[in-house]
Amino acid sequence: MDMRLSWAQVARLMPAFPSLSELALCRNELTDWDELTSEVLGTYFGRLEVLNLDQTGLHDVGRLAAFQQVPLRKLSLNRNRISRLELMPSFKDLRCLSLDYNEVEDPIGLS
User: Do 103 and 83 contact (CB within 8 A), yes or no?
Assistant: First the structure.
C-alpha cells in the first residue's frame, strides 16, 4: 500500500467500511499506536479477521495487545524488525501467524 497512513487516519477511514473483515496496511510506518484505544478497536475493527502489517516497521509485538479484542484469524507481520516474541499477546481466534523475514532470536514466548 505505502500510503504513509497513520493509525489515526486508518481509524477515520474505518466508518466507511463497517463490514470490513480484511485490512492490508503493508509498507506504512504505523507509529501512533496510542490511537488504537479499546473504543476505536471495538467500534471500527470489530469484524476484522485478517490483518496484514507487513513492512510497517513493527519491532515491539507487545503493541499488538490492542488487537486481542478483535476476532483475528490471520495476522501477517512479515519483513518487520521483530526480534523478540516474549510479549506477543494471545489471540484466541488466530489460525495463521506469519513472521517471515524478521530476525526472531528465540521463539520463546509463543504459547
Answer: yes
Written as nine digits, the cell of 98 is 506469519
- Identify the H or E element spanning 38: helix 38-44
User: Beta-carbon neighbour count of residue 64 at 10 Å?
Assistant: 21
pLDDT, tens digit (0-9, with 9 covering 90-100), for 93-104: 999 999 999 999
| C-alpha span between 93 and 95 (Å, rounded) | 6
Place of cell 489471540: 91
Specify the pTM.
Answer: 0.92
CA distance 48 to 56: 18
Q: In the block, which residue shows the cell 488504537? A: 36
Cell 470490513 maps to which residue? 20
Q: How far apart are CA 42 and CA 25, in angstroms?
A: 19
DSSP structure class, residue 56: S
- Total residues belonging to the chain: 111
How far is it, in rounded angstroms, from Cα 11 to Cα 34? 12
